[in-house]
Amino acid sequence: MSADLQVDIAIVGVPFDGGSVSHRKGSRLGPTRIRETLYGYSSYSLEHDADISTLRIADCGNVDVNNMNFEETHERVESTVTQVFRVCPNLLILGGDHSVTFPCIKALSVILGAGKRLGVIDFDAHNDCRADWTRNSGLWVRQIQEMKPNPVRGENVAQIGIRGFSYSPFYRDYIRKTGIRVFTSSDVSKEGIDSVLSSAVRCASDGTDAIYVSVDIDALDQAFAPGTDGPSPGGLATTDLFRAAFDLGKHPLVRAMDVMEVSPPLDVDNATSKAAAETLMRFLCGLLKRKSR
């Protein structure tokens, strides 16, 4: 991408699922299917009275990944995303398994520069803070807090949609120690997505210079997102995620959003890819509203 090209937001795909530890692989095919789904939409939303055709959007294609080499792929992702950030203020990243969120956050931290702080809002069914694991998608939340010189602090990380029986008290204690703010799917049901998102944004924006938003599509209930590595019942509704994506698109500190773990081979009637695509479209509507202020 030319350094003098004026772009509002860029799209980068990461067709990598080398970090998936289960037999339910397939998220490397997510970027292609999400793009194919996006091609079927018009640019106008009656719901938001917004026409995103007025946004300057550049699709930068996919990172040249090596699905047989975890470390090399992460290095390529960080390098590519850093280069795109240098010429574009905002990014959408299409995954891919959730491990690649780590190098994307590293790239944004590089762009922000020394001494700058970064907040993270993560929509997810899982905490992704496993210990003593390597080369998998379930440890990136721990990794970003171990970055030097500490651009991401636990108290600036908020997770929405956590649920189920995937972790032990060991990880509960880690979450409490680091100060990560967790909102379960039950919290969303009780309090409403607007209240939960408001609290999450306060957490991620407190003393920070930018916010990174990550969406693991398994945050959605499996009825809405069956095509993913770890689908489970009791998750968020699509309407909750869509509303949040729109509001986050409007927020001036939000610099990037990724959508991860869409696995087309496991999908039913393209439901998961549609949910991912519409999440991205609503984020773009929010960005348009941000520009119009």
Write a concise keyword list for the protein shown above.
293 residues; alpha/beta; Arginase, Chain A; eight-stranded parallel sheet; two-stranded antiparallel sheet; 9 helices; globular
Please tell me about this protein's structure.
There is one protein chain. The chain has 293 residues and is of the alpha/beta class. 38% of the residues lie in helices and 17% in strands. The protein contains nine helices and ten strands. The strands form two sheets. Strands 4-1-5-10-9-6-7-8 form an eight-stranded parallel beta sheet, with helices on both faces. A two-stranded antiparallel sheet has the order 2-3. It is globular, with a radius of gyration of 17 Å. The mean pLDDT is 95.
Order of helices and strands: EHEEEHEHEHEHEHHEHEH
The CATH topology turns out to be Arginase, Chain A
Please indicate the percent range of residues in DSSP E strands (runs of 2 or more): 15-25%
Q: Helix amount, in percent?
A: 25-40%
N-end to C-end Cα span: 27 Å
Instruction: Report the top-level CATH class.
Output: Alpha Beta
Structural class: alpha/beta
Short structural summary:
The chain is α/β, with parallel strands linked by helices. The protein has nine helices and ten strands.
Task: Chart the SSEs and their pairings.
Elements lengths: L8 E6 L15 H9 L5 E2 L4 E2 L5 E6 L7 H18 L3 E5 L5 H12 L5 E6 L16 H6 L11 E6 L6 H10 L2 E4 H7 L1 H13 L4 E7 L21 H13 L3 E7 L10 H22 L1
Parallel strand pairs: 1-4, 1-5, 5-10, 6-7, 6-9, 7-8, 9-10
Antiparallel strand pairs: 2-3
Helix pairs in contact: 1-9, 2-3, 6-7, 8-9
